[in-house]
Design brief:
This protein has 361 residues and is mostly beta strands. It is built from 1 helix and 26 strands. 34% of the residues are buried.
């Protein structure tokens, strides 16, 4: 590793430190004897002669990672530096393109915040971490892109100011530094719909057939988590566990003429198995249905209620008006997006009280 000074003032602080990280802290003539270099250093620098070190790794300690091009999944990198000489001030650490030392293109977003999505598709690389030694200072970077195939090799560059006010750099971009480069592979994002979801459903009538409750639960076929469920307003009949996303006051039963009242509730995800009840009325007072268990773990979980036509059981808590959210959105644990559509229909399965007026698709 060759050490080159940025300006006309020669610094020998890093003159013999040619093992870890390319530095700009040296003259063209580099002393080969450690004692000679020590004699050239200022008294405060002679207190220690540890080699300045800069490395770059993923948060798992590996040299490679793979992310989706969904703009959400982040390549999580850790730049670590140590043994910066006394009197030097670290101004910045930045991520650059390896070998060219150029800034990242605008197709990459670099953040200092972790958005919480999992950071490596290939979980097996987690067991290949390189243990770190010493007591380095770590700076974390979170890179994301929406461009599939936007593969890149990245490096780290540290800029510091010496006691005389001169700017100097320590870099891993030449590729000669041990643990200095990280390869990021970008694969196409996934988009989920009804065909990528497993659907389980059960339905029963309660309290002398006053009302029916159906439990509809959707999970990803690839076994990944479901997060960030949205797409619908959450302000209607929200008890902290679930909220109303659709309801009806009809249409009329084809035989009796009584109206079919209904309601659909969407549960907040990843709260485990929760117990819940729902408001209903037989025309005089409002009551609560029997408690039911709903599994919200890694799932889109719905409760679909229908009133009994002949008893005019009212299960629409909005009473005089109705609501309907047609599209429920979600993401998996890598930030890939999905959607599930909900529609009212008169073509659902028949039961003894009439038609079920909802369809997931």
């Amino acid at each position: 590793m060759k050490l080159i000074k940025i300006n006309s003032i020669t610094s020998v602080i890093f003159a013999s430190l040619i093992v870890t990280g390319t530095s700009s802290f040296a003259s063209e003539s580099v002393p080969t004897n450690k004692d000679a270099v020590q004699n050239m250093l200022s008294p405060i620098s002679r207190a220690g002669f540890d080699t300045p070190k800069l490395t770059l790794r993923t948060d798992f300690g590996t040299s490679a990672t793979t992310i989706y091009s969904n703009g959400n999944m982040q390549a999580k990198l850790v730049a670590s530096y140590e043994n910066i000489p006394v009197g030097y001030t670290v101004d910045s650490v930045v991520i650059k393109q390896a070998y060219t030392n150029e800034d990242l293109s605008n197709t990459w977003k670099v953040s200092s915040f972790d958005n919480g999505y999992d950071s490596n598709i290939d979980v097996a690389t987690r067991s290949q971490a390189n243990p770190r030694t010493g007591n380095p200072t770590n700076q974390r970077f979170y890179l994301s892109t929406e461009n599939s195939g936007n593969d890149i090799m990245v490096c780290a560059e540290l800029t510091a100011t010496d006691p005389d006010g001169n700017k100097e750099t320590l870099s891993t971009c030449d590729g000669e530094t041990n643990s200095g480069l990280v390869s990021i592979t970008v694969v196409p994002e996934l988009n989920y719909g009804i065909t990528e979801l497993n659907h389980s459903s059960s339905r029963a009538w309660y309290e002398n057939d006053s009302y029916a409750i159906a439990k509809d639960r959707f999970t990803l076929k690839n076994g990944r988590q479901i997060r960030d469920v949205g797409g619908c307003g959450t302000d209607l009949v929200n008890d902290g566990k679930r909220y109303l996303i659709s309801s009806t006051n009809g249409p009329a039963h084809p035989y009796s003429g009584h109206h079919k009242f209904s309601a659909v509730y969407l549960f907040k995800p990843n709260n485990g198995v929760v117990q819940n009840s729902f408001p209903y009325s037989n025309g005089s007072t409002w009551k609560s249905t029997l408690n039911q268990d709903f599994n919200t773990t890694n799932a889109l979980t719905f409760a679909v209620l229908h009133g009994q036509d002949n008893q005019s059981t009212y299960v629409n808590p909005l009473i005089s008006w109705t609501t309907h959210c047609s599209t429920i959105t979600f993401k998996d644990n890598y930030g890939n997006e999905g959607s599930l559509n909900l529609s009212r229909t008169d073509c659902g399965p028949d039961d003894k009280w009439g038609n079920v007026y909802y369809n997931f698709h």
